[in-house]
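Standup notes, structure subgroup. Blocker cleared on the nicotinamide-adenine-dinucleotide input:
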Amino acid sequence: MSVSVDRSAAAASDNVWDMAQRQLDEVAKLIGLSDAIHQYLRVPKRVLEVSVPVKMDNGGFRMYPGYRVQHNMSRGPSKGGIRFHPDVTLDEVKALAMWMTWKCALVNIPFGGAKGGVICDPKSMSLQELENLTRRFTTEISIIIGPEKDIPAPDVYTTPQIMAWIMDTFSMQHGYSIPGVVTGKPLAIGGSLGRDKATARGCMYVIDEAIKVLNRSIEGTRVAIQGFGNAGLHAAELMSKRGYVIVAASDSRGGVANAKGLDIAGLIAHKAETGSVAGFSGAERVTNADVLEYDCDVLVPAALEKVITRENAPRIRAKIIAEAANGPTLPEADDILFERGVMVLPDILANAGGVTVSYFEWVQDLQENFWEENEINDRLRRKMTRAFNEAYEQSQRHGVNMRKGAYAVAVDRVAEATKLRGLYP
Ligand code: NAD
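Run returned:
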C-alpha cells in the first residue's frame, strides 16, 4: 500500500487539517513509518456530525451543528476537549483530534485522541440556553462517549460548569453517577486538585528542563507571556514564584512590560479588578505584537493560533519558546527559528500538563480514591520531564527541532500499538 500525498497543495494551504497531516507526513519520513500505518494514522477513525436543536429563551428553538471526531484509539479510550465557538469547522476538529493522539502518546498516558466542537456563539447565549445546548449535544454524542470509550474535557469557551452538565446528562441517561465520562469537572463532583493550574505547571516544568540542557539558570531568566487566561496567568504566577522574572504580559485588550520585571501579584489583582492587564501601573504599554518580540529569554505564547509567522520569527529575541497555546507557530516560522538556534517547545509537549492531570482525574474517578495535590504535581513533573527528555533525545539523534523530536516519540508509540493490535478482522 502506498500513501498518496499532494504535498504542494498541502504546503500552499493554511488549513489546519492539511497542516496536521503534513506534520505527520514529515515525521513518517523521518522515522521510516510503513506506508500501511502511515495511511491508517493519516485519517480519523470516526467522525460524528450532529444537529443540535436548542430551546431558546424567547420560546423558539435553533439548530446548531456539532461534531465529535475520534482520531485514534489504539492506546486506549480517546480523549479531547469540546470547543464552543462560532469559527469551529470539521477540519479544525479533525486536526485537534489528531494532535490529541500525539499529545497523549508523548506524555505516555493510555489514551487516544479526540475532539468535539459546536458552531455557536456562547457569548451571546444565556446560561439556560448554554445548558440546553450542552445537554442536547451530550445526548447526541452519547452513542460514542463514555469512560471506557471517549472522554471529553473543556476547551475554548467550555467551562467546569459545562463539564458538570455533561457528566449529569450522561449519568441521568444511565441511571447512576458516571464522573469518569468527562474531565475538568468541579471538585465537588469528582474533579481533581491541581487541574486548574496543570497546563501552566506542566509548561513551567518543560521550560525548567530546557533551561537545564541549555546550561542556563532559572534565577533571573526573563519571560514574556502572550495571553493572560487560564494558561498565561497561572504560568506568570507559578514562574515568578520559582525565580523567573516576568517582563511582559498581554491579553486581548493589550499588554504591559517592564524590563526589570512586573509585579505579578499586583498584575493579577489588576486583571481581576479591570478584566485586563492593560493599564497596569509601573509598566510601559505594549501591543500584543510587541510582546512576541520583547527582549526576553523565554517567550510563552498562551493565547492564539498562528501568531509566530515568517515575518516576526526573525525578530523574536527569546532563546526558548514554550507553546502553551495550540498551534501558535506556522511551519515556515518553525524553520526560521530552528536555523536561528531558538528552541521551540511544541504545543504537544508544552501544554500537555492539562491532559496529563485530566488523565489523573479519570484514574481517581474510576478508583473513587482522590489524591493530595502534592502527589498530583509530583506525578505531573515526572511525566513532563520524561517527555521532554525523550523528545530532546530524538531531536538530537535526527538533528531536527523539538517539534519533530516530540512527534517522532509520539507517532512511534501510536504506530507500535496499532501494529501490535493488528487489523481486525
Ligand atoms: P483562556 O480563554 O482562559 O485565555 C485566553 C487568553 O488569551 C485571555 O487572556 C485572552 O484575553 C487572550 N487573548 C485573546 N485574544 C487575544 C489576542 N488577540 N491577543 C492576545 N491575547 C489574546 O484560554 P486558555 O485556556 O488559557 O487557553 C489559551 C491557549 O492555551 C489556547 O490555545 C488553548 O487551546 C491552549 N491550551 C489550554 C489548556 C488549558 O488547560 N487551559 C490546555 C492545553 C492548551
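Discussed briefly. Residues 198-345 form a domain with the Rossmann fold fold (CATH 3.40.50.720).
Next: hand off to the docking folks.
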